[in-house]
Design goal:
The structure is a homodimer. With about 325 residues, chain A is of the alpha/beta class. Helices cover about 40% and strands about 20% of the residues of chain A. Chain A has a six-stranded parallel β-sheet with strand order 3-2-1-4-5-6, sandwiched between helices.
Chain lengths: ~325, ~325
């Protein structure tokens, strides 16, 4: 039985999620794909930190120890920030590795270059986990194209912002108190600027734009408004009118092929598909020529949801058998 | 450039949808996949009926004219009912054709046998269009497995029933009047027994059960209740309590591996993901170990949505290139 050798770059929440799922689902994956999976090495920042990993898996803080290993087939990348992640992946691709990334900051900006580089080297780049965590929006849009044409994508792409807006409404508390609660629960980082300013949602929107329309608008042409300006009074006034604030990222293409994007708080009525999407969930509505509207709602972050998005990418690369239908 | 030769069995709403999409999206499909698509023949019941089809496409009511053509690579089947569809597809598989079906009645019962038969002959069977029309629930569940484990599937799987319940609530009219309206709008057949009795939703639930759990419960163990017993008074009483009737099909697996299914009207509160799903839309909630809850909402029927589900299957069979990411 052929063994597939993988490395994981970054062992934070997402990297650990991948590690756990590959171990926990080892037997089912083996049975379904015909492959054993061997986690050869993990790149960490601090090798002194104690970690519960299987004996035989190398823990290193030296990327070259991983990239110089000629046996590695697939690299999972779960590092934060554009560099050095991008350079690591470029080198991995040149060595013939398939690449799976969760790095939205890097991919929003350098995804195009990475995909072209991979095509030139005959390997794959997959990025389901960059956008909306466990919600399989990348695979879904890919599977609609080219038989259908996407016209508009709208959604809640940042779970932290949605959690904060939900708390402000439900508990009638101000933004700062809701943010503090999100931080206590681990839903927001100590530095949550990118989440509450709308930058994080913007990056995911740009990834979706590139996928659905083959390109992105000029970044400076997209207005980005965060939720930090939404007041308790505004939320309460909205509630009286049966409206809810949602932080919505939207991109659409007009008849002349011009892309228009926006990111910001929007008032949503009770019959809108985004009305009921509370807490840390993400939601995306895709409008197409043939389907009309397709809505996906699910967990936008978390160890297992995001890890499972990456393992899903992995299974598509190694090619799993179709699940059999047995009555 | 290699040409792929296809036949369409059945030229009702769905078959015509496939025909139109393959023609309308011809150039994009060619560019993305590297294949030209040649619609060689269409099986119809009445050859005398006038149809706008491309010259060169053979219209026939003789299945053997199609099955004896050694050049056909892929068969789209959009016939209603178990037979003769099943026998046609068995024969097509034996001749080495890939098969794409929208036939839920046949597939709920004979899907297992068909898939095994296809495996034995080295061809594929795809069935996205059998369940929830344009909503890509089959592909989504397939892509979650085997890295994740499905625990429960719930949803609105019959758009006609959902339309009727919506009209009964919004317009405060009785079941019969709402059914008549659905028929006038083409959302319900003249004989809508299978829709309003819950049988149609049940069949789709059995297809999802086989996919997600590898098997189906004994059919006679699944209680099936339709919407024909829901009274105007009951709908109005529910509305007063901010509840809505939804016709929900549900299947779950317990810790001992026992499957429990049910189909029937359920009262839904305002914070439930199915609360806002009105009209002819379908919605499915999949609960898994890793993802928690994933919800998909979209058109459950119609020429273009269902046709595009079948063309999506087709593209997966012929293997399309990944859409490039260009920034």
């Amino acid at each position: 039985m052929p063994s597939i050798k993988v490395a994981i770059l970054g062992f934070g929440t997402v990297g650990e999620g991948v590690y756990r799922i590959l171990n926990e689902r080892k037997e089912d994956i083996q049975q379904e794909t015909g492959h054993t999976i061997d986690i050869v090495s993990i790149l960490v920042r601090d090798t002194a930190k104690k970690r519960l990993v299987t004996p035989g898996t190398k823990i290193t803080n030296d990327i070259q120890e991983i990239l110089s290993d000629p046996d590695i087939d697939v690299i999972f990348e779960a590092i934060v920030g554009e560099e050095p992640a991008y350079s690591y992946l470029v080198e991995a691709i040149e060595k013939g590795c398939h690449v799976i990334t969760a790095n939205k900051m890097m991919f929003a900006k350098r995804g195009s270059a990475l995909v072209k580089h991979a095509e030139a080297h005959g390997v794959q780049v997959r990025y389901e986990a960059t956008t909306a965590g466990g919600v399989p929006i990348i695979r879904t849009i890919m599977s609609l194209l080219p038989a259908d044409r996407v016209r508009r994508i709208r959604g809640i792409l940042n779970g932290t912002s949605n959690f904060i807006l939900t708390k402000m409404r439900e508990e009638e508390i101000p933004f700062q108190a809701a943010l503090y609660e999100a931080q206590q629960l681990g839903y927001a980082e100590a530095d949550s600027t990118d989440d509450v300013s709308g930058k994080d949602a913007f990056r995911k929107l740009m990834i979706l734009s590139a996928l659905a329309f083959g390109r992105q608008p000029d970044w400076q042409d997209v207005p980005i408004v965060g939720i930090d300006g939404v007041t308790t009074e505004a939320v309460q006034d909205a509630s009286k009118g049966k409206l809810r604030y949602r932080h919505v990222a939207e991109i659409c293409i007009d008849e002349n092929g011009v892309l228009r994007g926006s990111v910001g708080p929007v008032l949503i009525g009770s019959d809108h598909p985004l009305h009921g999407v509370d807490g840390i969930d993400n939601a995306i509505i895709v409008d197409t020529d043939h389907l009309g509207s397709l809505t996906l709602i699910g967990p936008g972050a978390g160890m297992y949801p995001t890890g499972s998005a990456m393992v899903g990418d992995f299974l598509q690369i190694i090619g799993k058998r179709e699940p059999a239908v047995i009555s």
